[in-house]
């Protein structure tokens, strides 16, 4: 019995591993370093990726000239097939370390994936990798399985989008899918704006040779590395985003109820130090930034998109009236962006106000980071084992 492999490739990270295990063997960024040659051809370099536990340095994070950081996915679907293939090659060669032809594969796909892309992917897996068997399953269905449900409403908030996807008896109800671009990358953008307002300079670690401890709020005192290659803008941005994502995870918190200046002013502050040594306390900003997810008009940059709880209620409203109780009865929260502190508390609070009195609302959210970030991978692991 040769184990099946499960691939769950998201816009932010790639999760892969053997079916039947409780968490993926690897989890590395989906971005890939593309070396752009000066003449005309472009050559693909080995992709980045943190090589499991050996602690080998990330290939992508080494500054090189003319290396663009690109992502093969757009809107959750494969856009750039060459770099997508490079990711699979890398996973097989560095992590699976076994012949592709020995393992059946289960792969997750976006619920709105198109038929043409599905055919192309199947062709790639059978003809290029010679795999014995292949199964494509929608991410939302896998998330439901990971939580022991076959019916429910999956609220998946990842890097590029937040979606509510109704699943009934293991099938996605396409007409009820609601998508909103307010997700992790949106928060990253808000953080960037905040840093510009506060005149905080973002210096990724690759530029820093040494730094000295400075007092809170004082200008940073650091030395720049001397021989830095001319990096591309996209790569530098990728490195800045890595810094911001750490800030997001350490500092941000969702306000329990609608954002209120007075309440926010009494928030305990959180101390954060940037890679160049600059450090300061963050108070009200901690709540102000993620507020944009729930109440977009009240966030840093006001807009009229659907907030998280609206996405859920709109989606349920688009489904048949008979199955609504089943959806409200298991609203499953998944995706890395939902791990911002108090995200689920706020969601629970808002949904209980919006749910019709006749419905029983039950929010299902795993407490552990692993289960929530890898939920569709875990569902795949259960299904394929």
UniProtKB/TrEMBL annotation:
InterPro entries named in the record: Actin, ATPase_NBD
SMART domains: ACTIN (SM00268)
Gene3D superfamilies listed in its UniProt record: 3.30.420.40, Actin, Chain A, domain 2, Actin, Chain A, domain 4
Family stated for the protein in its record: Belongs to the actin family.
Protein's name according to its UniProt entry: ACTL6A
Originating organism: Cervus elaphus hippelaphus (European red deer)
């Amino acid at each position: 019995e040769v184990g099946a492999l499960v691939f769950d490739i998201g816009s932010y990270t790639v999760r892969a591993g053997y079916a039947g295990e409780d968490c993926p063997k690897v989890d590395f960024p989906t971005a890939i370093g593309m070396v752009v040659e000066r003449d005309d051809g472009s050559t693909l370099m080995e992709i980045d990726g943190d090589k499991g536990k050996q602690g080998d340095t990330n290939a992508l994070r080494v500054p090189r000239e003319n290396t663009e950081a690109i992502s093969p996915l757009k809107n959750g679907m494969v856009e750039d097939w060459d770099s997508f293939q490079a990711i699979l090659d890398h996973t097989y060669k560095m992590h699976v370390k076994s012949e592709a032809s020995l393992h059946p594969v289960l792969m997750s796909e976006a619920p709105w994936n198109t038929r043409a892309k599905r055919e192309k992917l199947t062709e790639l897996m059978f003809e290029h990798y010679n795999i014995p068997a292949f199964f494509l399953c929608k991410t939302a269905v896998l998330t439901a399985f990971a939580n022991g449900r076959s019916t429910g409403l999956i609220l998946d908030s990842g890097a590029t989008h937040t979606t509510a996807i109704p699943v009934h008896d293991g099938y996605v109800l396409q007409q009820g899918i609601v998508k909103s671009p307010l997700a992790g990358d949106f928060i990253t953008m808000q953080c960037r704006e905040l840093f510009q307002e506060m005149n905080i300079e973002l210096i990724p670690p690759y530029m820093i040779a040494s730094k000295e401890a400075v007092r809170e709020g004082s200008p940073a005192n650091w030395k720049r590395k001397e021989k830095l290659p001319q990096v591309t803008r996209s790569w530098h941005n990728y490195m800045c985003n890595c810094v911001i994502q750490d800030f997001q995870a350490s500092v941000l918190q969702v306000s329990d109820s609608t954002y209120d200046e007075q309440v926010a002013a009494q928030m305990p502050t959180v101390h954060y130090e940037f890679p160049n040594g600059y450090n300061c306390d963050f108070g009200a900003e901690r709540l102000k930034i993620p507020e944009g997810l729930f109440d977009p008009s009240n966030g840093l940059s006001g807009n009229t998109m659907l907030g998280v709880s609206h996405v859920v209620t709109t989606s349920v409203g688009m489904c048949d009236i008979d199955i609504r109780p089943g959806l409200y009865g298991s609203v499953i929260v998944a995706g890395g962006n939902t791990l911002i502190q108090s995200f689920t508390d706020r969601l629970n609070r808002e949904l209980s106000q919006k749910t019709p009195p006749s419905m029983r609302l039950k929010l299902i959210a795993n407490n552990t980071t692993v289960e929530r970030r890898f939920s569709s991978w875990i569902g795949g692991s259960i299904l394929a084992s």
